[in-house]
Amino acid sequence: MNAPLNNAIAAMLPDLVALRHDLHRHPELMYEVPRTAGIVAAQLRACGFDAVIEGVGRTGVLGILHGAAGPADGPDRRVLFRADMDALPIQEAGGGDHASTVPGRMHACGHDGHTVMLLGAARRLAETRAFDGTLVFCFQPAEEGGAGAQAMIDDGMLDRFPVKAAFGVHNTPGLPVGQFGVARGAALASSNSLLITVDGTGGHAAEPHKARDPIVAAAQIIGAVQTIVSRVVDPLQPAVVSITSIHAGDAFNVIPDSVEMRCNIRTFSESVAATVLAELRRICAATGEAHGVRVRLDQPSITPYPPTVNDRAQTDHAVAAMRTVAGSEHVHDALKPVMASEDFAFVLRRVPGAFIFIGNGDTAAVHNPAYDFNDAAIPYGVAYWTELAKQVLPA
Ligand SMILES: [Zn+2]
Ligand SMILES: [Zn+2]
């Protein structure tokens, strides 16, 4: 545990904790993060970054920092470090003296902490420049379901600054502070949300023969969907298909015209996701045909997230950096993957890299109203990013 005790990091801690509390008091949602992005850009300029670009993917910020020997001459010596800036539409329970000042909004996923840890590393690395090449610091909006990383990619982030590798960090409650973890290969799941609409013909409950009952057809679809994972997907490939809502009718004596259902699909590979989706379409079409009703599958505005897959060689770099910071006994380098999904997947689909977890200690779970990022984790995060710069761009 040498790096967190590094005097330079210790000296900036009070500042970083104060900044974390400030961000926590002023949570912003999705792409509407003007205050947070403004603070990030100002901090990067204040510590002497070579370039700061705002408004990437609407409200993302990129900070460009060259090592002591000057700019990278190509993507082989360029690496991207990423943090997320957005909060969640949750009413905070508690929060102490840095509680959210905005009703119905809070930093319930610790993105305030992620932003501050990367800003701490930015400040430290701008002082030392102890790496050879160029670091691209990426602060993205809309991680929570808005595909902000994809918006930054669509806005030319990786075309303007091609990189050889990309890294991200997320805190994880339950893992002690001072410990790290990473999953080899697939780390987080894909997520695909769909709206299923069953259109029949409503009528009197006493005269079903004059109607085409969408409820019975919907019930058949729900049952048949359970066979996708059990009968169609390779048993060695994890997958989840959940029907998460059903809405139809509101009377005792009326057969409704239509049923609306929501469905969520999770997998660890894009090909399994495609198989599940094709089977879902087949079940919907065939069941509709059998019952004389029309079944529609629509993609709502929620962008499907691909799985987050870690690259072997880049994961080795991340593990080496984590071990230097925390000691080997505090680095779990073969975590089980989790079925949650993560926006950084869009970056890792384009560039090899690794998404790692940092211990948040014994706190409430993320997305819980009682959650708070643990300030004690900040020096470990700063130390990790600083060490990783040396690992991936050795001077
Ligand atoms: Zn979250
Ligand atoms: Zn998060």
How is this structure best described in words?
The protein has 395 residues and is of the alpha/beta class. It has two domains: 3-187 and 308-392, Zn peptidases (Aminopeptidase, 3-Layer(aba) Sandwich); 190-298, 2-Layer Sandwich (Alpha-Beta Plaits), CATH 3.30.70.360. It is 35% helix and 23% strand. It contains ten helices and 16 strands. The strands form four sheets. The chain has an eight-stranded mixed beta sheet, sandwiched between helices. A four-stranded antiparallel beta sheet has the order 10-12-8-13, covered by helices on one side. Strands 7-14 form a two-stranded antiparallel sheet. A hairpin with a 3-residue loop joins strand 1 (51-56) and strand 2. Helix 1 runs antiparallel to helix 3 (111-128), helix 1 (7-25) crosses helix 10 and helix 8 (312-326) packs across helix 10. The model has no long low-confidence stretch (mean pLDDT 96). The structure holds zinc ion (ZN) (2 copies). One zinc ion is lined by residues 109, 144, 366-367.
Question: How is the topology of this model organized?
Answer:
Layout lengths: L6 H19 L8 H13 L4 E6 L3 E7 L11 E7 L26 H18 L5 E7 L7 H7 L2 H4 L4 E8 L7 E2 L4 E3 L1 E10 L3 E2 L9 H19 L6 E9 L6 E2 L2 E10 L2 H22 L2 E5 L9 E2 L2 H15 L4 E2 L12 H6 L2 E7 L18 H15 L3
Parallel strand pairs: 3-4, 3-5, 5-16, 6-15
Antiparallel strand pairs: 1-2, 2-4, 6-16, 7-14, 8-12, 8-13, 9-11, 10-12
Helix pairs in contact: 1-3, 1-10, 3-10, 6-7, 8-10
Bound molecules: zinc ion (2 copies).
